[in-house]
Fold this protein.
Amino acid sequence: MEKYTLIITEKPDAAQRIAQALDQKGKPEKMEEKNVPYFLAHRDKPLVVVPALGHLYTVVHVGKGRNYYPVFNFKWAPRYLAEKGAKHIRTWIEVVSKLAKNAEEFVDACDYDIEGSLIGYCLLKYACENKENVAKRMKFSTLTKKELEIAYDEPLPKIDFALIEAGRTRHEIDWLYGVNISRALTLAAKRWSGKYATLSTGRVQGPALRFLVAREKSIHSFVPAPYWSIRVTVDIEGATYEVEYAKKTFEKRVDAETVVKACKGKAGKIEKIEKKNTKQRPPIPFDLGTLQTEVYSLFGYTPRRTANIAERLYLEALISYPRTSSQKLPPVIGYKTILKGLSKERAYKGLASDLLQIGELKPREGAKEDPAHPAVYPTGNLPERPLHESERRVWDLVVRRFMAVFGEPAIKQSMKVTINVNGHRFYLRGRRILKKGWMKFYKPYIRTEEVALPPLREGETVQLREMLREDKFTKPPPRFNPSSLLKQMEEVGIGTKATRADIIETLYNRKYINEERIVVTDLGFDIVDVLRKYCSGVISVKFTRELEEKMERIQTNSEKRENVLFGAVERLKPMLEELKQRETAIGEALSNAIKRARIQERIVGDCPTCHTGKLMILYSRKTRKRFIGCTNYFKNACQTSFPLPQRGTVKPLHKSCKGCGWPTLLVKMKGRRPWTLCFNEKCPKKEERRKRLEMQSLQQRSSK
Amino acid sequence: MKCKVCNREAQNKYCELHEKAYANIMQKFETWKKAADTSWEQYLNDLVKNEFTGIWAKEVAEQLLKDKE
């Protein structure tokens, strides 16, 4: 076979798109070897475009066995050596190695960031046998044909070693902390109880869990304080409006009562009408964090889900690279070309043409920068296939946000009408939008409500209609949700844009937290407690942030990888010694926490018979069959029990049945769709269903 | 010493978690007294019933009511 240039990409979809863009005819030949796809393309010379499958190499322990710590010896090795279920990685690497043998030039076309650069580097170094020093680098932010062609024709002469060093260090330090402390916790619990349970923590996972525990503690120990407010409505021209008292809250009940007494049933006189116009500037372009936050608040998608959707849209060349910290849109991306592309879509035609009429387009930008990529923007390409609802929503949001940043400021008018009632002042407030400006582009996603007021004159009399004293209490701090936790992690500088969403998912998977409005489990509490007592460094936000900063300095060549690694290991050693010395106490605490967590997992809900016990999934000692029983059974106080399906898995849903209000379970069986089980035999919904089925069978019989 | 509420290790009457809730209860009483002239017992009863009171604070309030009995 003729010699060729081997182009390495991060994922198969990206390989296909790059091959299509670079092939002279736009029709590369798809090949496959041992289920590994690659593409043959022709440009100035033959090209072979082969994808990775994310990270094919990882950090592994040099040495045998898993049941000990500390471990400081590591090396980079194929993932199949370290992970169960990664066997396909072996064939993947073999295919890349085979293709590398006939290649005369190498190009790294993985995503241009820490992770992408590291993926490319590992393949070039290990699978292609030390080609990392001869390879060129394609740098691009979108998978559009034009940008890919430029990136190929004008590549960077070398791969970005500083970025790779930073990536390697991050993976190595994360491995050192993750493996050692997780092993210490798991082994302590195992040695105490004799039972194995995976317990993990990490350099970023620990501090993130600590935020949650701190919030949970303030919620649990919260004591509300009373306060009062006054709710008043007025009638104007047949319509009712809510007005507010000049003082929004009262700390003493008697003060609120005095005002109510003085004003109830009285008429008021309009004393003053004030109007104020304010300019609202357009929003700033999306970086990954702000995109995730906006999507969560609009559609309720978790940060992880948004990142996955954005990744798919990027691979389809619909939006630019989403893992960016930038809030800047440089002119080089070609604002007008993008808008012309978007104008081909009916929904954006009018909006895009409005912007295209502006002579010079200038986006409003945020402060954050990213040396590798601009903010997230639409490429101007239109979907080649019908998008799923979630994809369409995110794409539409990115498109509209992009257009909005070029819009003019919106002008809002707020109106404040002061009403004097028996010497007390009340305010009637209205607001409306005088000029939409950027809002017309972002219309579906704007959450301000207009309150139109009728024409009013100073000196006019209005009648108070309703006047109530409202008893209120201060509320505990709000729980974190995945989006606000991500924002918090970003603000304090722990984790990276690529890892934060995954870390939150890990906390859920390890059962340290549950629910959307995050609740920390007992296990989560105990993990933080143990870490705080015996190795507080690993949950220290300050320490984690300092380490992040040092790793970032490696990217700019102002810090050496060896120094950062050495410092991290020196910090880790005493923590591990402490953990080892206190292994028994830690084992006991964790084992008890695991036991409590396992019991908690089996609790279905409150007992509907005795109302004091809890219904729980139990196993018969005689038959080993599972059933639901009340915890008061063990006190001889309640005999309530219900049968359960014996096949598949059953899991408490912690949701009440809509028919009878009893707790429900989720049942999963092989080959069937999971279903919700209400175990109340007298549930009205079951009765309804039975009648419906009877009616259907009667109808079928009569039609025969 | 064991916590009066949950039996965890404690330095005084309460463990670290319930101690914080106890401190909050003591601190907020003045506010309640000034706001609505609430008595200590009424205050504790109100806390037990209030939906915004944290679970540890409720447990301590219940314990304080029991102690009074």
In short: The first helix of chain B runs from residue 16 to 36. The mean pLDDT of chain B is 92. The two ends of chain B are 22 Å apart (CA to CA). The CA atoms of residues 21 and 27 of chain B lie 10 Å apart.
